[in-house]
Amino acid sequence: MDATLGRYGIELPDRQLSCAPASSPEGRAYLGAMAAAANFAWANRQEIANRVRSAVARILGAAAAEGTRQVYDVAHNVAKHERHGGRDVLVHRKGATRAFPAGSDEIPEAYRGVGQPVFIPGSMGTSSFVLAGNPGSLERSFGSTCHGAGRRKSRTAAKKEIGGAELRAQLEAQGIVVRCPSNAGLAEEAPFAYKDVEAVVEIVERAGLARRVAQVRPLGVVKG
Predict the structure, then answer these.
(1) Dihedral sign computed on CA atoms, order 37, 38, 39, 44
(2) The model's pTM
(3) Catalytic residue from among 81, 84, 92, 147
(4) ∠114-143-150 over CA atoms, to 5°?
(5) Which of 89, 107, 135, 149 meets the CB 3.0–4.6 Å disulfide criterion with 101?
């Protein structure tokens, strides 16, 4: 899109904002590729869930597997056609998800009475949270909130501070089962590389973006 900015009279303060009109050939090509990527990701998550279900059936039996079901699925890097401030716009959320409040027409009917489900993962060694969208999200962030605690350290920095074998031992000492074929791959996701998820969730609540519903703690880590 960098090469087309002049054609559309677009001037940007930062190259990271490179763009094109949604109706242009470049914009349509981008949105088509994004939809294809989102569809692939959705199908991939379905297959991951299917394999988990198969593993549960193999170890615990078919009856236990029948009780495992998907509750909610959400993308955290996608553009959506929405209406804000009386205008039809595209909201591109990267590392973020919708947090629409109760009553919003775009929320699936099963959740419309309570607000859009929101997931804020912490790390493989800390809690994650389930929240529900609040009215403040529409007032302050185009109906959005963060999708995760966010990194404090890069993957490279994390690997310099701890070895995968040491991290594996630390997690297992907390009772967390670890399945990862690569120690280097495990080390780059070390819990200390992420922000304090409880502080992040508190800020989200204080800002009125979403309210916490449940806190979940990790029992196992699977990293490919």
Answers:
(1) positive
(2) 0.86
(3) 147
(4) 100
(5) 135
